[in-house]
Amino acid sequence: MHVLFKQKSLFFRRYNAIMRPFAPRTSRQTTILVREKHSYETKIFIIHIFLFFQIAVGIWVMGLLVALPQVLYFTTAVVDNSTYCVPVWPDADENGSSPLEHV
Questions:
Q1: Rounded alpha-carbon distances, angstroms, from residue 39 to 19, 21, 42, 46, 73
Q2: What is the pTM of this model?
């Protein structure tokens, strides 16, 4: 993808050089201002990327926290050659059922 942008920018440079050979060039002052502008835009871009990764990590952490009870309190049981995922609650009675299981 970046190759296409590079080719397009080269095309426009060459087009402008051929079609407008006497157009004024940018001065040193303008070049410095453009560099500072890009520097600021680059900083903003880096901040946005950093925020994106913070949000992505936050989503993953929230997902892991939501799945944590399933990791801690569920196990597999084999019944008639079929494997089932069953809850094993710490407050279960002798039958294996919990008063909070159906809440």
A1: 30, 29, 5, 11, 52
A2: 0.45
The residues spanned by each domain of the chain are 2-87
d(CA 68, CA 82): 25
Could you tell me which residue, 103 or 28, shows the higher pLDDT? 28
Asked if 74 contacts 63 with a C-beta cutoff of 8 angstroms, the reply is no
Compute the CA torsion angle 46, 47, 51, 54 (nearest 10 deg).
70
What distance lies between CA 61 and its chain's CA centroid?
13
Q: Write the pLDDT tens digit of every residue in 42-57.
A: 777 777 888 888 999 9
